[in-house]
């Protein structure tokens, strides 16, 4: 009997000031994680273009929302908004390597031009073989899903094995939609 049901509906609630309103969207609506399934060896810098797979419940996570789409290492966003993007890299470096890096490249024009959104390196203290981890993160404003995209690169000064697995996340890209573009 609130306001005789006038303007009430399945998507409204009765607010404290005695009016029916539709709640605004809030909270995290999109989360997705992808990982590389096969190890590769690299010298120099290169885009990771193959062997991507979405995390599944068997690996402990299932996407929230629509999720990202991927083609040849280029990821397309399911919706516009502000996105937190992270790239975790795990490697076994050659004794001659002095650094290993991870890079996130974004674009606003479907990769006619690259924008180096974030990069990080770790010093491997060349001369000893060891495992190395690199983590990089950025916030990206996806204003148009057709043109605003992202890709991930690895870099090594000398021959380095980037460790990946079909059964665990070792090279992992994570996407979290934080909210609407302000």
Short characterization:
The chain is 0% helix and 51% strand. The chain has 182 residues and is mainly β. It is elongated, with a radius of gyration of 21 Å.
Which properties best describe this structure?
mainly beta, 11-stranded antiparallel β-sheet, two-stranded antiparallel sheet, 182 residues
Describe the 3D structure.
The chain has 182 residues and is mainly β. Helices cover 0% and strands 51% of the residues. It is built from no helices and 13 strands. The strands form two sheets. Strands 3, 4, 5, 6, 7, 8, 9, 10, 11, 12 and 13 form an eleven-stranded antiparallel sheet that branches. Strands 1-2 form a two-stranded antiparallel sheet. Strand 1 and strand 2 form a beta hairpin.
* Amino-to-carboxy terminus distance: 38 Å
Shape, please?
elongated
Secondary-structure element string: EEEEEEEEEEEEE
Question: Helical amount among residues, as a percent range?
Answer: under 10%
Strand content: over 45%
Number of helices: 0
Main β-sheet description: 11 strands, antiparallel
Fold blueprint:
Elements: E1 13-14, E2 20-21, E3 31-36, E4 40-47, E5 52-54, E6 69-71, E7 74-76, E8 81-93, E9 99-107, E10 115-123, E11 130-142, E12 149-162, E13 172-179
Antiparallel strand pairs: 1-2, 3-5, 3-13, 4-12, 6-7, 7-12, 8-11, 8-12, 8-13, 9-10, 9-12
